[in-house]
Amino acid sequence: MPATSALQSEILGERVGSPERIRIEAPGSAPLIVVVRRPADSDAASNQIAVMEALTGAGFAAMPRLLAVTGGATVESWVDGATALAFVPPPGSLDAAVTALAALHALPLREGLRWELSAAETLPAPDVPLYRLGFAASEREPAMAPLAAAHEALLASPFGFVHGDATAARFLLAQGRATLINYARAGFGAQLFDVAAFLLTAGLEPPARRTLALRYAEVRDLPPGETANLVDLAGLVWGFETQLGLARRQVEMLGDDAASAELSTEAARIEQGLRNAAGDHPMAAAIRSALWPS
Question: How many whole angstroms separate alpha carbon 74 and alpha carbon 226?
């Protein structure tokens, strides 16, 4: 850049490690807007760089363009859009989001975290401490057997490269388009957890969640009904694990009002989605019947 270039920066958050938006105005050139992303945790920052470089090499389109790597940070193209936590998703954007996840999961990548683990080791423990979520013994005990069976059922679902944190906060949506950001937790895992995480936090009613799960199955060429039912079951397992970590995440968000508000919205949507079925898997039905008897 010429020495006379003007830079304007804005921190997109109030915590250490929040991304930075930079507008660059060089003489004789159109303004360039970039995002500098450097997670506070050094391992997460390294994983962000490695995964974005791998995805760029694989030609994954539903991500910001990686412009540079400098000082342990990625410099990414600015993408217009907002998340489903901030506004009603525009037409075509939700379909684009699950299509992007399907494309990500189809990549033959072995990059990121958890590749040393078996599929079973990447799943939450089957003996979920439901007492920590406020369930009484009379509710917990009949739920334990179907929860253990759910763990086994999910081992038959697709495993491979995943985003690892694919909540609604990680998708920038615009009409007919979705861009997936922040790859600090990407690596090996249960791919239907990515799908469930997005559907549960996007604020969707059960019919819409099922329709999008069917769309994912169609793009991946997976059995549609079986896959949609497994996505709903995965949502229960992923949702309980996420709720158990809520207190720690709330502490991490202290001082960042916007991030805390997003977390509260996610938590409320997960609670609602866990109660309301978007599939017909018998294990999911048994868990819900035990925990939320009608």
Answer: 38
C-alpha–C-alpha distance, residues 183 and 104, integer Å: 12
Predicted TM-score (pTM) above 0.90: yes
| The token pair that represents 154 in the structure block | 């999910």
Residues 129-170 have pLDDT tens digits of: 999 999 999 999 999 999 999 999 999 999 999 999 999 999
113 shares its domain with 215: yes
Domain identity same for 115 and 258: yes
Identify the domain containing residue 57 by its residue range. Answer: 1-78
Query: How many structural domains are present in the chain?
Result: 2
SS3 state of residue 203: coil
Q: What is the mean pLDDT of residues 30-58?
A: 95
Burial code of 101-132, b = ≥16 C-beta within 10 A, e = fewer? Answer: bbbbbbeebebbbeeeeebeebbbebebebee
| 66 and 107 both lie in a single domain | no
